[in-house]
Amino acid sequence: MSSDVTSRIGMAPVGRRVRAYVAPVDRGSERPAIFDPGKHGCFPLDAPPSPWIDVGWIENFRRASTSVIDEVRTGPQGSISVQFRRTVGASVELDFCDWGKLQMAISAGTQHMNVLGVDPNSEDEPMGGTPVAPFAVLPGSTIQEIILGPGAVDSFAIGDLVAVDVDYQQQVGYVGTGIAAAYVSDPADIFSDVNYIRRVTFNVGCVKGKTATSLLLDQPMPGGAPAAMSAAQKVVGFVDRDGGNFLQEWSALFVAGEESGGRICYYYPRLRPGRTLGSTGKSPLGNTPESQYALIGTLSRVALHGTFVALPWRDGIDNEQIACYRSYFPARFSPLY
Q1: pTM of the entire structure?
Q2: Is residue 337 part of a domain?
Q3: Which of 79, 93, 237, 297 gives 20 to 30 Å between its CA and that of 113?
């Protein structure tokens, strides 16, 4: 007997890979970004609706529900009389095919640092020493054009990376324009570093062009237009750490099954760092930071591995606590049952 699984035409979503999108959670209110399937269910994969950010194709996508259904037994034979959901949760595991600031930050799970251009005479530090002084960002700057004025733009070249955010001024709480990049409990913890917010900000872009007074970026900055009194500093790379008390939190959307005409969307309102699922659902090793894929000969591709736990949030339709939404958009004219 054949072991092949057959389906009526159009009822089995087929796809080569899964596409991933993220959006920041408002950490102050714990409100996630909303994916409305009625408005945006069939959006073009290369043009996600705001505020979703495309983080590319992923591999080895695995998801599981960790919700627990319990029961109350009554009577002399202990028959089930009532069922109820005792806990709500879900977990996700995946490999990012692309490396970038967002992918690194999400997979690392804690503060993700921009390595600022440093004074060559500064003391060596694992995340970069004392940086070169920043340049003030002038009014009129936008999400993709950073106005610095004549002369200041000469310090940046085409292809340079630039971080754009405000000075740290002794504030406590979440910091970072548009996206919570870190949490400061006490200014002494970060030695009142005036450049700290630009060290962690997600408002980073690549210079694709210049005018006499401004830098033109190749992509819109994830955190939005520069805040008042922002400054710009050159970035030479990124670094994250194994450790740290700040936990990343993002809304996430995963799209699968495009080739057959149908589409499946998995929407997680709140994802935080979790533990590797493994064959038993738990692993004493915790996260595996990278995955190795053999290519040709001694060449291999390194993928960022991420494991996440879904935090529930309360749905406004019926006040239920939900960890994940799965939506299905059938191929046109396919059977529905």
Answers
A1: 0.88
A2: no
A3: 93
Question: How much of the chain exceeds pLDDT 70, in percent?
Answer: 92
Q: Which of 205, 221, 240 corresponds to the end of one domain?
A: 240
* Boundary-marking domain end, from 223, 240, 257: 240
For Cα atoms 122, 127, 129, give the angle at the middle one, nearest 5 degrees.
10
Residues 132 and 230 in one domain: yes
Task: Give the number of domains in the chain.
Answer: 2
> Are residues 206 and 262 located together in one domain of the fold?
no
Of the pLDDT bands very low, low, confident and very high (cuts 50, 70, 90), residue 2 is: very low
First to last CA, the chain: 25
Are 212 and 116 in a shared domain? Answer: yes
Quick one: 223 and 325 in the same domain? no
* Domain span at 148: 112-240
